[in-house]
Amino acid sequence: MKETNIGFFGFGLIGGSLAKSLKDQDHPCHIQVAIRRRNPGIEKGLEEHVIDSVFEEVSHDFFKDLDFLFLCAPVIRNIRFLETYHDRIPSRVLITDVGSTKECMDKVTNECGLSAQYIGGHPMAGSEKTGYIHASKDLFQDRPYILTPGSQTTEESLQRLKRLLACTKANFLVLPSNTHDAITASISHVPHILSAALVHMASHNDSNEIPNTDLSAGAYRDMTRISTSSPDMWRDICLTNQEEILKKLDLYIKELHTFQDALKEKDEDKIHHYFSQAKAIKDSGAKEPE
To answer: Which of 24, 111, 146, 232 has the highest local Cβ count within 10 Å?
Structure first.
């Protein structure tokens, strides 16, 4: 059985979890990782035989035997990788990524002449914890995995990627890139901004006697858990999905003003309705009316 050669640029929680899934199957694969410097995660991946080879310089040798290339670094680093090395990537290599914004990747792959080789990928799974040390082969099981083929993507290429990723046991969903970016702005990007904002708000507590975090109950803990995620990753996500995030922030601010007005007026009915409507929407799983 022919070995599949799979390259990774970026090897943290998501990249490491993908590599573990790929190694935990009958089909043999060779995992090679391009890195800027050695780190404990890379050493652990080598010790566990998840990583087969490491390239500390991205040379022609890194690309020459590849079948697939996974871009698993923060989005802007992935973009710069393609801008720098696009002319070294053989036409047979199928390129995908795991980033949370997709239209920017469509743009750079078009500019670099790689659009026929690229299929966007976004596994909707993860953790506030980072690094290979937290990677798990089961991270994606039963979770949505969004694929965003471009205008030049063939059905053959899409099925080829799905077959490779079948080992993750994820549920694949195919979407246009712009739809993906609009959805993730609502359900992922803005919530991370709100989590960080809540941490900032609580840190400005007027009382100096007891820090807010010492008294925090489940709500604060649960809502701010994700604020410990990678600042590099979230900076890149916000900068590469600016338009959709700004739209959703405007809607959220409008909602806050609606509640603020009801509270200023001490309008019992409006306050109760606001909470009861949110509960009904959440309980039903239905989309909130426009």
So the answer is: 146
Residue with tokens 């998501």: 14
Q: Cα separations (Å) of 268 from 22, 178, 256, 273?
A: 56, 40, 16, 8
The amino acid at 122: H
pLDDT confidence band for 104 (50 / 70 / 90): very high
Note whether 101 and 184 are within 8 A (CB). Answer: yes
Give the DSSP letter of residue 286.
Answer: P
Whole-number Å distance between alpha carbons of 6 and 15: 11
- How far is Cα of residue 197 from the mean position of the Cα atoms in its chain? 20
Query: Chain-wide mean pLDDT for the chain?
Result: 91
Please, what is the Cα angle at 141 between 136 and 146, to 5 degrees? 110
Q: Please check the confidence at residue 115 and state whether its pLDDT lies above 90.
A: yes
pLDDT tens for 220-240 read: 888 888 898 889 999 999 999
Rounded to a whole number, what is the distance in angstroms from the first to the last CA of the chain? 53
- Which tokens sit at 194? 């709100």
- DSSP states of 109-140: HHHTT-GGGEEEEEES---S--SGGG--TTTT
The answer to whether 236 and 75 are in contact (CB under 8 A) is: yes
User: In sequence order, what are the beta bridge partners of 174?
Assistant: 147
Q: To the nearest whole percent, how much of the chain has pLDDT over 90?
A: 76
